[in-house]
Structure formats: structure tokens, C-alpha cells
């Protein structure tokens, strides 16, 4: 199954390190990050899960729930969590799905035979409160995920969801943003952007970040 941006994230019920989870109910009205790992006790994933735990407050400020996935069973997850807590100096504070039957992996197309016929690839899905997929990223097994970039994209998604703007290359919180092309009414622009804007071209209008 190929999932595209704007698709509804498939619902599922599966065991996890925090008990059985029905995904859409667990997500509720929050944004969500679902990220997959090839297997338990893998070194790069151990660092990623530790960092995710340490970023708990950063995700909470953005109304984001985080959930991980690996194809190993719950008992293995619980032992791995002990290692993560010990080696990364943190406490894992989110569920890890135990996808031993590959049910979720198949729903989210996480088994890529040319990479591995048994282990999931290292994918990330950002899902909005309407359960729509807003971002997909897939990393090679050798490269750890960039969580600064993940938080940056979530900030951009949430800003552009509620304001008539887009974020330019390398945008960071507080930088100028771009007024969307669909907004052409000057009275409405003045209302929405009281700090004004500068037009480099008719199609490229920069304004201070709203909010």
C-alpha cells in the first residue's frame, strides 16, 4: 500500500510496550509522529529513541504524540527499553508498537524488499489531528534521523495550517514567511499581516512570522 500526503493514516490495533493501542483513538486530537525501526537492540535506533524521550517537552508543547514501531515482540521491547534508558540517560516515555506479525508494517509500506525482506525501513510519518498524513521521510539504515528537522517541519506545518503562509528554504521559528499566492485581496492581506510585507516579485511576498 502506497501512502501519499493527504491520505488518512491507516488505523490499526496492535500490542505495544504500553499495552494494546488502537491508533486513531490513541492519537485523539493531537498531532502524531509514527516512526519505524528495523529491529530491537540496533545501535542507531537506540540513540534515536533516547533522543525522542529527551525531547518529550518539545513534542508536548507542539501537541504532538510520538509512537515508535519495531517488528520484535513486546518482551523484546521491554528489555530494549532498559538498555535505551541506561545508555542514553533517559526514560522512554512513549509506546513502541510490537509489530511481530507485520500488520502495521504492511499498512504503512515499511517492508522494502530491496533493503530487507524481514525488517522495516526507517520511515517517519507526521499525522495531523484529522488523521491525515502531512509528512513522510524514509532514511537509510546507516543514517540517524535529524530530530531538529522533524521539529522544524512540525512547526512549519502547524504555522501554515492556521495562517495563509508558507515557509521558505531553511526557515526557522521567527524568520520571515511567504504569503501564499492564493491570497490577493490587499484589504485582507493588511488585515492578516498588520506588520506589512515586502514584495521581491509579485509572486514572492515576505512578511514577519504571524502569531
Describe this structure in words.
- The strands form three sheets. The protein has a five-stranded mixed β-sheet with strand order 5-4-3-6-7. The protein has a four-stranded antiparallel β-sheet with strand order 8-9-11-10.
- The longest helix has 16 residues.
- Strand 4, helix 4 and strand 5 form a beta-alpha-beta unit.
- It is built from seven helices and eleven strands.
- The radius of gyration is 19 Å and the shape is elongated.
- The model has no long low-confidence stretch (mean pLDDT 93).
- By secondary structure, the chain is α+β, with helices and mostly antiparallel strands.
- Helix 2 crosses helix 4.
Helix fraction by DSSP (H/I, runs of at least 4)? 25-40%
Q: What is the overall number of helices? A: 7
Shape, please?
A: elongated
Low-confidence stretches: none
Q: Kindly state the number of beta strands.
A: 11
Question: What is this structure's SSE topology?
Answer:
Layout: E1 13-14, E2 21-22, H1 23-27, E3 31-36, H2 43-54, H3 56-61, E4 64-70, H4 74-88, E5 96-98, H5 103-107, E6 122-127, E7 133-139, H6 147-162, E8 165-166, E9 177-179, H7 186-192, E10 198-201, E11 204-207
Parallel strand pairs: 3-4, 4-5
Antiparallel strand pairs: 1-2, 3-6, 6-7, 8-9, 9-11, 10-11
Amino acid at each position: 500500500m502506497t501512502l501519499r500526503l493527504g491520505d488518512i493514516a491507516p488505523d490499526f490495533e496492535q500490542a505495544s510496550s504500553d499495552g494494546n493501542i488502537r491508533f486513531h483513538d490513541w492519537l485523539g486530537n493531537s498531532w502524531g509522529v509514527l516512526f519505524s525501526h528495523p529491529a530491537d537492540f540496533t545501535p542507531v535506533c537506540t540513540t534515536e529513541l533516547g533522543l525522542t524521550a529527551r525531547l518529550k517537552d518539545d513534542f508536548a508543547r507542539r501537541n504532538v504524540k510520538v509512537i515508535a514501531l519495531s517488528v520484535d515482540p513486546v518482551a523484546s521491547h521491554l528489555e530494549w527499553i532498559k538498555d535505551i534508558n541506561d545508555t542514553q540517560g533517559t526514560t522512554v516515555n512513549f509506546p513502541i508498537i510490537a509489530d511481530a506479525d507485520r500488520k502495521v508494517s504492511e499498512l504503512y509500506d515499511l517492508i522494502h524488499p530491496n533493503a530487507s525482506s524481514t525488517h522495516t525501513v526507517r520511515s517517519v510519518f507526521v499525522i495531523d489531528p484529522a488523521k491525515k498524513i502531512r509528512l513522510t521521510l524514509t532514511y537509510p539504515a546507516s543514517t540517524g534521523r535529524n530530530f531538529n528537522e522533524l521539529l522544524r517541519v512540525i512547526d512549519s506545518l502547524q504555522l501554515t495550517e492556521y495562517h495563509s503562509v508558507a515557509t521558505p528554504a531553511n526557515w526557522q521559528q521567527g524568520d520571515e514567511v511567504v504569503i501564499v499566492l492564493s491570497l490577493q485581496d490587499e484589504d485582507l492581506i493588511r488585515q492578516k499581516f498588520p506588520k506589512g510585507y515586502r514584495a521581491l516579485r509579485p509572486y514572492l511576498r515576505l512578511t514577519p512570522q504571524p502569531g
